[in-house]
Amino acid sequence: MVNIKINGIRIQVPDHTTVLEAAKKVGVHIPTLCHLKLDDFGIVNKVSSCRVCVVEEIGKPSLIPSCSALVYEGMNIRTDSVKALNARRNNLELLLSNHPFDCLTCAKNLQCELQSLANELHITEIHAKGEKMFYPIDKSSNAIVKDPNKCVMCRRCETMCNEVQTVGVLSAINRGFGVVVAPAFNIDLADSSCTYCGQCVAVCPTAALIARSDIQKVWRALANERRHVVVQVAPAVRVAIGEMFGMAPGTISTGKVVTALRRLGFDAVFDTNFGADLTIIEEANELVHRIQHGGVLPMLTSCCPAWVKFFEHQFPDMLDIPSTCKSPQIMLGAIIKSYYLKNLDILPRRLKVVSIMPCVAKKAEGARPELSKDELNNVDYVLSTRELGYMIKEAGIDFANLEESEFDNLLGESTGAAAIFGTTGGVIEAATRTAYEMITGESLGNVDFKQLRGLEGIREATVKIGSLDLKIGIAHGLGNARKLLESIKAGTSHFHAIEIMACPGGCIGGGGQPYHHGNQEILKKRQDAIYAIDKSLPRRKSHENEMVLKLYDEYLGAPYGEKAHDLLHTCYTPGERI
Amino acid sequence: MNSKYTLLVCDGASCKTTHKANLAAGFKKVIAEKKLGEFVSVVKTGCFGICGQGPIVKVLPDDLLYVSVKQTDIEEIVEEHIKNGNVVKRLLYTDPFTQEPVEKQKGKKIYQKQFRIALRNCGLINPEDITEYIAVRGYEALASVLADKTPIEVVELMKKSKLRGRGGGGFPTGLKWEFTAKQPGNEKYVICNADEGDPGAFMDRSVLEGDPHSVLEAMAIAGYAIGASQGYIYVRAEYPLAIHRLNIAMEQAREYGFLGKNIFSSGFDFDIDIRLGAGAFVCGEETALIHSMEGQRGEPTKKPPFPSVSGFRKKPTSVNNVETFANIPAIVLNGADWFASIGTENSKGTKVFALAGKINNIGLVEVPMGTTLREIIYDIGGGMVNNKEFKAVQSGGPSGGVIPKEHLDTPIDYESLKQIGSMMGSGGLIVLDEDDDIVQLAKFYLDFTQDESCGKCTPCRIGTKRMYEILDRLTKLEGSPDDLDILEDLAVNIKNSALCGLGQSAPNPVLSTMEYFKDEYEAYAYRKVKHTYSIITDKCIGCTKCARVCPVECISGSVKVPHVIDESLCIACGACYTACPVNAIEKP
Amino acid sequence: MKINSRSELVELRKSLSNKITLRESGATTDDTIEILIGMATCGIASGAKDTYNELITVIEDLNLTNVKVISVGCLGYCYMEPTVQVCIPGEEPLLYGKITKDKAFELIEKVIVERVYLSDNLLIRSFDKAGASNE
Ligand SMILES: Cc1cc2nc3c(=O)[nH]c(=O)nc-3n(C[C@H](O)[C@H](O)[C@H](O)COP(=O)(O)O)c2cc1C
Ligand code: FES
After folding, report:
1. Residue B184: CB atoms within 10 Å
2. Which pTM value belongs to this model?
3. CATH number for the domain that contains residue A414
4. How far apart are CA A449 and CA A428, in angstroms?
5. Phi/psi-derived region of residue B297, left when phi > 0, alpha when psi is between -120 and 50, beta in every other case
6. Which of A170, A421, B165, B352 is a plausible cystine mate for B366, CB 3.0–4.6 Å?
């Protein structure tokens, strides 16, 4: 413990406390911008670059950044000296002097940390005006829009991209006034090895990095009488969207989402969870097949598109280990565009599939060329949870007080196993439930594999399935995934199956979800809600989904069979690390 | 008259212009008149380094100096000294310590303002031949510390010598070594900072090119003191010759066993590698330098932690400057007390400066701390070119400031320079005369820093750009008085809140010039500065040269008739000024 | 040739001390004349390399077997580059500045052969330095 003084107030704080944290303890607020501390993930953005949080340390000529300066015995701080206030205001004014003032139409309007800071410090005039940065806006990718002119060089995205996700695409480039965060040589994101995980988007304080908006396209499709527009909703959406309407984190609003989507004019509302059940049947069959026929092990899950892009670029020599299963959204899209279409009396191109996803990468996944058939994508438009929220708001729907309704059949039926796809550990648990019964031929009594749950970055567990010790690995966050993959490559770990999700927490923490600002409590609530849905459902094993079984019976034939292969499986392309 | 005399007559630019004397010709004339030609030869020589007492005449073989010799003294010197063999006592050089006139210079060298420690071997030995370094006691300092001293004693010796870092900051080297030595763990590093990015600075390059072994030897001593067995020299790739000579030197040192395993059979291992820098100014900042060495972007990070705690590869690292290192073998050989006896109370030893600008003897000088600017400029530097009026000295490059006339007699050391708003920096000294424009100078430095900023922190990335823009506006007469307030606010806030030394010192050129030359800023702000060239009608001979070179064709007039400049069109390029053969053009 | 101890190093230095005395005071018995030429970046930029080559050529042409040209670092006299120092045994070493290629012949002829000063180019060494050659 050390004794320090802040604005004359004496306080004792533990070693390694920052001045900012210490100030908070005595009720002193210091504005910050670049600072980002996602305690629960152990992520700290320590660049201290914005200098908006500087405070005066008595006796030192230079001001110090409170967000990273550590306390020491006898430290004497003034956060309110004129010298500090002037510097903070000056630095904020400087940032604003180099910012495009298109706030009214900015994607981050009223959600922008720079904007609220300007409000907080009551900036009404910029004294030193001058040239502004001018870079082209990068709209090359199908998922993320990068506007370097709005970059404030907080480097949070860089921390996420390099330290947390180890993707290594974003870093500072150039020198002097022209410095921005961008891929090396300022190439387009689409040409880089960006996975579109969206974690950069999730932490960007301004609109320098935003998810591409597809709202307008969806409105257009809905407005067209001749279009038959169906929508599917991913498992993690229903436990998070309520947050945008003042509901407590972890509120389950499945029924409200369905009602809202109908009100918005969708012709049918399906559940991605159906696709998830389908995925499990295919994936469990693939796993069992690989185990029983000496195939490549471990088998890696392939539901997460950011993860798919990650291994294509980072481990191009290991493309034979991931499952060939398409993700649930794409599987469902493929079924809608084939099986469902069959019974509709319309031209195939008039059927549009919209997905509501917690994810930014799903937008890019929807546009992958190999995930289309006869030049029609399995999925046409992907909206993030946030985008759906905006549409609901725009339509004036009182979401919180909405009555509940059910998904359309038959692609609306799902089991508890599908529900847990939304959280880290869920996919593999769902697969285990099915694989267990497939391998042993016995019915599984307790479906809760608690050893697979949790929020630690890397988890390992062994599940006894008859005589087989099924070794399972789980990682969330791509940095953790890399560690697992490297241990496989080095031959130091031996798993049968591994589940990987790119975002911290899994889809519940996806880049398209309402901003959780790294608050793990929110993630835990969402996770609890996911498991609560699982528990509440009568059927909790994917192979018990009657509608899925019906689909196989009527249309697909045998699981992991020929037709299933054609519609539900995919292949991977090696990429480079750029 | 017994022997043949040679008169070495100072012909340095300073003496020539300051005293408008042509002593050599005078001597020749008088000697010819007296028909002494066959006994005396008159030789013109360069500057003696004591221009303040010039012009100077050295008489050989008697080896004595006459100072402040005037045209009117020639007769007497020739008559008395040459002809009659009597020394002209009143003109003799006076020893500054004993105040005695020095009759026989022999043995007693004239007191020089320059004293070279870091540069002691530069120009004396062949840097590519290790035996020449050995001949000047090279590697004996290393041998002696390995034989006689514990690492702690070496640290103590450095502390006692009070050597301070020559890279700009002036941090006591002994303390830095002590911090590094005290860190736990046995993986530590010594880094030699040879990035030298200040525009106009080249002292480190000279040391590396002229005496690379002294740096290698000092690095090994540092390694021994702090417990490191690996050193790195971070040198800018733009210094190919320095790199070449360092490589040769390292190879030879290994061959002789001064680097490598078990040096001098002491059990101490130390080797050195070179890392090339791409020449970004900010990479001279030690944390940025370390990141650059680690293959990351050359960007500074917050201190603490200091490199001595967590440096290269997160291990304790002592980063020292080239010139700092070059002092160390001399300190070990001559003792800490010797070193501490040179210089001022808080700044010991000497400092190398790169003299440039409107001064006669442009070059590298090394002077004891505490030497005044006047001595450097007028005695060593040979005074102002064309005897123009001294205006100020810019010291410390882009991190420093100007020192005006009223501080010419300030003894230079780390503290005094800071006090008058400048900085030791790496040691660039640019001398300005009455013709130099202070605001343009500040603009030049801000242009440099805004361009060289790594762009990490807001005040430096955007702030220096804004400062530059204001200066640019002002000098184009597009500014306003408000701009001066904004400029000053920016300067103060950037200085207070930037992340690293680059940003914190970037406003210095503006702050110090605003302090001493506010009127020049105001002249621009209130647009009182005449911004165009004009022709002095009385002087113009109508040669048409100016009209022909004017790129915007704003000069008119017929042959042999005085020309005129249309001031509304003049872009102040100065072409006419250069072209005019009769100085009939007036500058803005 | 590995040096294993301080005494070996000191022995070696003593055997080499002649050349440094020559350069510092001229007080040696050896009869080798040395011409030191400043070959740092600044010198080279002002043409020291050409001067160096020319000096060698002239020495060969005149068959001066006792004259050695040695490249050294910078003396700091930027305004007088290229600079050379002529060290003649028994005489005080002298510095000359602005010895460009076309001055090389004159330098050798006047200073070494005729033993007169090269007026106009003479440069006085204007510094003291830390002694290192004495123990
Ligand atoms: C912008 C900037 C540039 C610097 N450039 C150099 C440099 O070129 N050479 C150098 O030795 N030190 C430079 N420094 C100082 C170093 O950070 C460091 O203090 C120094 O290398 C320590 O060595 P010393 O203690 O021997 O001076 C620079 C500092 C800053 C802030
Ligand atoms: S919040 Fe501390 S420097 Fe940006």
Report:
1. 5
2. 0.88
3. 3.40.50.1780
4. 10
5. beta
6. B352
